[in-house]
Design goal:
The complex is a heterotrimer of chains A (300), B (136) and C (129). Chain A has helices at 16-26, 28-41, 52-70, 84-100, 104-112, 115-125, 130-173, 195-212, 229-245, 256-264, 278-289; strands at 178-181, 184-190, 216-223, 248-252, 273-275. Chain A is an alpha/beta fold and 300 residues long. In chain A, strand 2, helix 8 (195-212) and strand 3 (216-223) form a beta-alpha-beta unit. With 129 residues, chain C is of the alpha/beta class. Classes of the chains: A alpha/beta (300), B alpha+beta (136), C alpha/beta (129).
Chain lengths: 300, 136, 129
Amino acid sequence: MALIPVTKDKNQEVPSDNRLYGFLERNEVILIDGWMRDMRNSLTRREDLISEKDLRKESTNFVRLLREGIQSGNFQDIEKPEWTDVRSMLTDLSQSRAEAGFSPSETVMFIFSFKQPLYQELRKEFEKDPETLASEFRNVITILDRFVLFVSEAYQKTRDAIISRQQQELLELSTPVVQLWEGILALPMIGTLDSARTQTAMEALLQQIVETGSQIAIIDITGVPTVDTLVAQHLIKTVTAARLMGADCIISGIRPQIAATIVHLGLDLGNVTTKANLADAFVVALQRTGKKLSSNVEAA
Amino acid sequence: MPVIKREALPIQNETDIVKVRQVVRNWSVEFRFGLVDQTKLITAASEIARNTFYYGKGGSLQMEALQENSRVGLRLIFEDHGPGIPNIELAMTDGYTSGTGLGMGLPGAKRLSNEFEISSKVGEGTRVTITKWKGH
Amino acid sequence: MDRIPILRLGNILLVTIQIDMHDRLAMALQEDLTEQIVKVQAKGVLIDISALDIIDSFMGRMFASVAAMSRVLDARTVVVGMQPAVAITLVELGMSLPGIQTALNIDQGLALLEKFQAKGGQSRARYQA
C-alpha cells in the first residue's frame, strides 16, 4: 500500500489516513455487526422495506468504499475524485430509499447510526492514546457528516422528481372531458385553478375535440371561485385555438367575482359566448348543432 | 452550463429550412419534450431559419442540448453574415415587414421560446439565439 | 420536383398535405390549385392538414393566399384537421389565418362547403377563424 502524501496531523508522525485504513480493515466485521445491531434497534429500521441481507450488503459496501477514500487523507471535501465511489454509492442508495418510500430521517439514519459503533471500536483501538483517539474521531466524523448532508440532498432531489411526476399524472387524471351529446363536449372545472392545471385541462379539451369531432365545447367554471390573469388568458387562448381548429367554445358559470376580475384586468372575451350555467350553455349548443340549420344562429 | 449534445447545420438553400425542422423535431423527441413544446420550438426554428436564409442570405444553425441540475433545454443559435438588421426594435414589433414582403417572424419566435437573444450589425450579419426548457 | 396531388370530388378539389413542404413545393401547390379551380370550375377546395405538425407564418400566408384566390374565382376554401398543438402554437404566434374557414375533419369540411353553396356563395359561416 503506497503512502499518499498528506498533511500530517501535527501531533503524530504516521499520517492518519493509513491508521484509519488499517483500523477499518481489521475491524470490518465488528463494526458492521455493531452497526447492524444499532440499526435494528432503532425505530427507523424499516424491515418492511429492506431485508437484513440487503442492508448488510450496503453497509459492508459503504465501509469498504469509505476505507478507500480515507487513504487520501481528505476529510473535508467530498467533491474530490477520491470520494467519487462513495458519492455514487450513496446517490444510488438515496434514490432507491426515496423511491421505496423511506422518510428523510430513515434514509439519513443509515450513516448516522454508524457513528456509535465506530466510536466504540475506535476507543478500544486507541485506548492508550486519547489524543489520537480524539483526532481520528474528529476526522472521520467530519467526513461522515459531509456525507449525511449529501444523502439528504440526493434524497430530496429524488423526492422532488417523484412528486413532480405524480402531480403531472394527477393533473392528467383530474381533467375529465365529458361528452354531453353528439358533437358537444363539456369540461367542468372545479376548485382553484393554477396555470399548469388549466393548461393541461385545455390541451386535453382540444385533443378531445379532435378525437370526437365535436364542434362545441362548453367550459364550465361554476365550481371555480376565482381566476387570475394567467388562467383567464389560458381560457381565452383555448377558445381561440378551438376556433382555429373549426370548433367553438361556450364558457358557462362565470361568477360575479370572476366577471369583475375579468373586467378589472381589462381582458377581452371578444365574442365568446357566455352563459350563466351549464344547462343554458347546453341548450345553446344543441341549437347550434341542430340538424335543422336556421339562418339565424346567434345565441339567445 | 454543460452542453450534452451539439450539432451544426448549414442553412444555404431552401431545403435546408425543412432539414432544420426535421432535426429540431428529432432532438425535441429525443429529449422528450411535450408535444406542444415540440411544436412551438419547431415553429420558432422554422421562422428564424427562414429569416436566416432569405434575409440573411444564408447562414448556419448551431444546436445545443443543455443540462443544468435537473433542467434540460435546447438552444438554437442561428447565424448569418448577411446585411444585418438596421433597426432591431422595429423588426421585433408585430406586423413589421421587410422589403421582400415577408414579415420577419422574429417576434413570433420570441413568444414561442423561453429565452430569446438577438444581435445584429449592418453589413456584418445577424445572430439569433433561442432556448426552450423542457416543461416550461 | 414532386408536386402534391390534387383530387377531385365532383366540383370540389381535395388536397391532403402529408409531407413537410419546402417553400417551392408550397408555392407550386398554390399555383396548381388556382389552375385546377379554373379548369374544373370548382366551387370548393378542401385542404386536409391533419398530418401537418407545424404551420409557420409562411405556410399560414400560403393558405390565406389560396383562400383569397379561390374566393375571387367564386370557390370556397376550407382547411380541415388542424392539430391541437398546431392551433395552440398559432395562437401563441399571433397568427389568426384571416379569411380561412376551418373544420375538424373532411366530413365537416364538406358539410361547410355544401352550406356555402346552398347559400349561393354568401358567407354565413358560424365558425370563422
